[in-house]
Amino acid sequence: MGLWWLALTAAAIAVFALLPYATQPLSDLAAAENELAANYADRPGWLRGVLYAHMTGGGLALLLSPVQLSARVRARAPRLHQWTGRTALAGIAVGAVAGLVLAPHNVAGPIGVAGFGLLAALWLTFATLGFRAIRRGAVTAHRRWMIRAFALTYAAVTLRLWLVVLVPLTGEFLTAYRIVPFLAWVPNLVVVELLLRRRRAPHRERGRTVV
Hints:
By secondary structure, the protein is mostly helical. It has 13 helices and no strands. It is globular and about 50 Å long.
């Protein structure tokens, strides 16, 4: 059930949340009071291109990551796991580098520069460490790093969920958006670290029993 929830919410954000940006120019979205689009509508063309690169790379990674988490796919279709993994890694690389470029231009101000910038840096770092681990055959380390990377990929979902809660509470989008640069991903990473530690603990206990 947990995997299905992750897959459905990831697909919803990867497709439906990004669909307006794929079908309408930023100027039209800005005229419709889309604050994020308004922030970039009058920016230089190269920066608008970076925004679309971030959305495309991040959306691709978000869409494919639940497939990578499936033990059934890993066991029954290892080649599919390998190729979707490479595609997801490419999406993370594009999305994270673009995110680093976009961070100084975000609408949340200095807190956004710090929060979104650190998110992009860690996202790229975890994915790189996961790729290096599998290249040297360290499967367990690879899985752990990629689970961490997915926690940050999933920030695209949790950010929007937090906004659903915070916008009514604060009364406006910009105030709510200034709260989410860290809130969107730090709890995700904390939960993942706790789960990884719980999964490691039984192995340690079995090791002591055998000894």
